[in-house]
């Protein structure tokens, strides 16, 4: 599903954030990406959805070398990749329903299908009853649920999450993780960068640890391995 082949990323300021990364992630896997601040986790994640391009090497998503994609093809790539951020990135003037529907409207799905699919997805994340509310009327955890709903409404094969529980209290973080677990059991590949030691050590999955732009540890059912 995801493969990096000898990937390097060097920024104009001279910082090398990826230094010869080789990794394969299979369809349906749930992978945590861990490591100290500044280790290269965010770059690793961003290169998967072409927010950043590698300086050298190949990144394949479902067999497509995304580093060589023309800019005009990137939106098509992202239709098959759901992305969840730490800061939600919701559109503040749109309702919960409209935020989630937007992801289907831009690909010109039929209105009848959009309504059905949006309500199904809001039901999955437990927010069907808040479809008409604005993001400012929701708690942080609820806003993150909307963000997750928006990222999965078009049934992506891959979900990328960058510190999705970083701004949430512990109880809400567990609720969000339960949603991710459910999404994963339905077949979606999940790659999640996180500093949450307790979650990684409790809900065991594959752990990839990055330091200095290199993978220093790759373990099935691994632990966090760092002091927070």
Characterization of this structure:
By secondary structure, the chain is α/β, with parallel strands linked by helices. It is built from seven helices and ten strands. The chain has helices at 41-48, 74-78, 96-105, 111-124, 140-152, 170-185, 197-202, and strands at residues 2-10, 16-25, 30-34, 56-61, 64-65, 81-84, 158-162, 189-193, 206-211, 214-219. Strands 6-7-8-3-9-10 form a six-stranded mixed beta sheet. A four-stranded antiparallel beta sheet has the order 2-1-4-5, with helices on one face. Helix 3 (96-105) packs parallel to helix 5, helix 4 (111-124) crosses helix 5 and helix 5 (140-152) runs parallel beside helix 6 (170-185). The radius of gyration is 17 Å and the shape is globular. It is found in: Cell membrane. It comes from Robertmurraya mangrovi. Homodimer. Forms a membrane-associated complex with FtsX. One of its GO terms (molecular function) is ATP binding.
